[in-house]
Design brief:
Blueprint lengths: L4 E7 L6 H13 L4 E6 L14 H12 L5 E3 L2 H4 L6 H11 L4 E7 H5 L7 H4 L4 E5 L9 H7 L4 E3 L9 H9 L10 H9 L5
Helix pairs in contact: 2-9
Bound molecules: adenosine-5'-triphosphate and magnesium ion (MG).
Length: about 200
Amino acid sequence: MSYRKIGIMGGTFDPIHNAHLQLAQEALESQDLNQVIFIPAGQPNFKQNRNILEKDTRKLLVELGIQDNDQFIIDDFELRKDSLSYTIDTIEYLQRKYPKDELFFILGEDALLELPKWHRSSELKNKISFLVAKRSLDGFSKDLDRLRKLGYNIIEFPFYYLEISSTMIREKRRNNREIRYLVPQKVGEFIKERKLYR
Ligand code: ATP
Ligand code: MG
């Protein structure tokens, strides 16, 4: 096997939930990807103002969430670093690791619209294509066209919008509400056992 198509799914995953997994699965099937690599963020750049679950716990939650899918793997590149993690560094690392393969960055529209703020964002457009899914019931934002004009390769793929977020999961836990149908079973059990987000 020489040439493969690999999806990259970055996120804080605090915690991983069913919309993350469905997003990865839809990207995989609609674009004929061979594999999706989940990359939990170390110290997210835009979320420094709230307490994020520690790295090892978020990593374990991702592992539990993807363990029954052979085409989903995790890479802890960003977690291994003490410094801030930038997407550009991760992409360069993955291109070195998989030099023959084509990489696609999978993300929700909310994350894509932040792209101009990303570190060395203009270099990213020559390195990778973006597979973007809607994150609301509205149509795609006109801002995507603006990004396209700047030279980003943005591919919209069909995704039946699921109104699930990690914020929602954390809120439900705080309010003593059930999360079992919003996260994979093993993830839900682990969160309850460890009394996370209470
Ligand atoms: P938080 O509420 O803490 O911001 P989140 O649910 O947005 O968490 P992230 O880890 O921030 O999860 O997101 C990782 C990636 O998954 C981003 O690209 C985000 O756009 C995407 N994503 C998360 N939930 C959804 C969803 N329901 N629909 C589409 N994309 C999603
Ligand atoms: Mg988010």
